[in-house]
Write a structure and sequence with these properties.
alpha+beta, Neuraminidase, 2 domains, four-stranded antiparallel sheet, flat, disordered N terminus
């Protein structure tokens, strides 16, 4: 077994607490090693049911018969619709009746429970999550949309005299009231959705418990609620009011300025549609392998990026940004405008090269050998870059006084989003250090390798913290994680390089550790994944880029 692949803990004996359990008491529900079986069944031997641990909870627990106290009810009378024991079946009360076996009913109910559990977990619950995220996005964009209204109204204000200020102020008050109403409508709808989400989760939890339970009575009386949950709440459309300016005439001031349209709310019925499962699942290999090694010539190699399998771009602690084909042949070299090494490099969807320069506080774009300025900051220094699936640019940045860090999303050169604090108004990211590589996941989460904090910090698309990953216990990787590069693949897995332990951590989309990649890596730094899920890893000291196959 690969020592770097850490499976779930094996079951331990519940009596001695140390030995590996090979057996299970289906009556007492305890794990047992072979030496402890004798002690466990020494009393009331006939009541214990010892089975191999892989068949635990396989013995059905039947309800006791009310008429024949020592007998278990294993049948249901078709005529009386009650559960009965074997003695009941031969009694005069049930003479000539037909019976169902409870074991068969139990099996069918278990199958129904499993189907409902899977639908709730994989289909219905994620759908409610999407609805809630959509409403949160609407709420989050309210300030920006209403700010546009105020700007439009201010343009009209400039064209009229000071005497109309009172009328303008009255309309601003009206906007504020409508905004509160708009917010209240969406918040009310969100609260309703979250209540339904909570109900779905409670039902899912109950089904998970029933799935593991051997209790016949609650299982056979199970009644599915999925039909109710499939009836999704209607979609809310609340239109942003419009400011309608009026031509300046000698009329009453109120009519001169214009008016605000009222909120328009439309409820659109939602139809539940089961999502088509992903059929192109790429499973992880037990033994990743190095396919190719490219010597870049960088003495201190920091970053690698690519759009496809044909070529890669690299940068280190020099002004040279180098492009290689997959065979390792140098294709092109570009020098930074300032002559200093770039803090990071990235490629946009058109293949244009982007790089950040901390000395000029600028992000540049190079296309057709022409360099243009995309972003120039004041008070902040741009650090690491990532181009999103929508074409936006994510930039990690550090304040000039080196006390604050944040992530800013740019649409073109316009700030579209700032991510800096959590719900308790605490910083999401550590300050005092530039090294915070960033990547967008397939589910639109934003993943940051916070080097100073020794953590992978993941927020959702609206900037709410989802989880922090600070390492995985391992006998071979026992040093604290020092993350540098970060990337994601087609299966929404997160890959992060670990300088201290000379390996790559692979996490699932929820931050659960999957396994390590080591492949003889030394001082791994920047990472990227190509369109075929091949991993490229920078080795800082050697200047080599290793191409690694880690999935099927």
């Amino acid at each position: 077994m690969n020592p770097d692949y850490i499976p779930l803990d094996v079951a331990r004996c519940d009596l001695c607490k140390t030995a590996i359990a090979q057996s299970y008491c289906d009556f007492c529900h305890v794990n047992l090693c072979k030496p402890c079986i004798g002690d466990h069944i020494s009393n009331e031997y006939e009541n214990h049911k010892i089975v191999p641990i892989l068949k635990r909870k396989s013995t059905l627990i039947y309800p006791k018969c009310e008429t024949h106290q020592k007998e278990n009810c294993k049948y249901r009378c078709k005529d009386c619709n009650i559960i009965v024991c074997s003695d009941c079946t031969v009694s005069p009360q049930h003479k000539g009746h037909e019976y169902f076996k409870l074991a068969e009913i139990f099996t069918k109910s278990k199958e129904s429970i499993q189907r409902d559990r899977q639908e709730l977990e994989n289909q219905i619950s994620p759908t409610y999550k999407e609805i809630a995220n959509e409403l949160e996005m609407q709420i989050g964009s309210l300030d920006g949309e209403y700010k546009k209204l105020t700007i439009e109204m201010s343009k009209q204000r400039e064209e009229i005299h000071k005497e109309v200020d009172n009328a303008i102020n009255q309309l601003e008050k009206e906007i504020g009231e409508i905004k509160v109403k708009h917010h209240s409508l969406l918040k009310k709808r969100l609260d309703e959705i979250k209540q339904l989400q909570s109900l779905v989760q409670k039902t899912l939890l109950a089904l998970n418990e029933m799935k593991e339970s051997n209790e016949v009575s609650p299982t056979i009386h199970y009644s599915s609620k999925n039909e109710e949950f499939r009836k999704l709440p209607p979609k809310v459309y609340v239109s942003i009011p419009k400011f309608i300016p009026k031509q300046i005439e000698r009329e009453a001031l109120g009519n001169l300025i214009g008016k605000i349209t009222p909120l328009s709310t439309i409820l659109e019925e939602r139809i539940f549609k089961a999502k088509t499962p992903n059929t192109s699942i790429r499973e992880l290999l037990d033994g990743p392998e190095v396919l190719n090694t490219i010597n870049t010539g960088h003495e201190r190699l920091l970053r690698v990026t690519c759009l496809n399998e044909e070529q890669i771009w690299t940068s280190g602690q020099t002004a040279d940004i180098k492009c290689f084909n997959i065979q390792g042949v140098l294709q092109k070299t570009i020098q930074t405008k300032s002559g200093e090494y770039p803090d990071d490099i990235a490629l946009d969807r058109d293949g244009a090269l982007l790089y950040s320069d901390g000395t000029t506080k600028t992000v540049y774009k190079i296309k057709n050998d022409q360099t243009e300025t995309i972003i120039t900051l004041q008070g902040w220094v741009p650090a690491k870059l990532s181009v999103t699936s929508s074409g936006d640019l994510l930039v990690t940045m550090l304040s000039d006084d080196k006390t604050q860090s944040k992530v800013v999303r740019y649409s073109g050169s316009t700030v579209a989003q700032t991510i800096q604090f959590d719900d308790e108004d605490q910083p999401l990211y550590s300050g005092n250090y530039y090294i915070k590589y960033i990547s967008e996941n397939r589910n639109l989460d934003i993943c940051v390798a916070d080097n100073e904090a020794g953590a992978i910090v993941v927020v959702n698309q609206v900037g709410k913290l989802r989880f922090r990953y600070t390492g995985h216990p391992s006998p071979t990787k026992n040093k604290a994680i020092v993350p540098y590069g970060i990337t994601t693949d087609s299966q929404s897995r997160i890959l992060a390089s670990d300088w201290n332990n000379h390996c790559i951590h692979i996490l699932d989309t929820d931050g659960q550790f999957l396994r390590y990649i080591h492949c003889g890596l030394e001082s791994p730094y920047g990472l990227c994944v190509d369109s075929n899920d091949s991993l490229f890893v920078c080795e800082y000291k050697s200047g080599n880029v290793k191409k690694i196959r880690y999935s099927k």
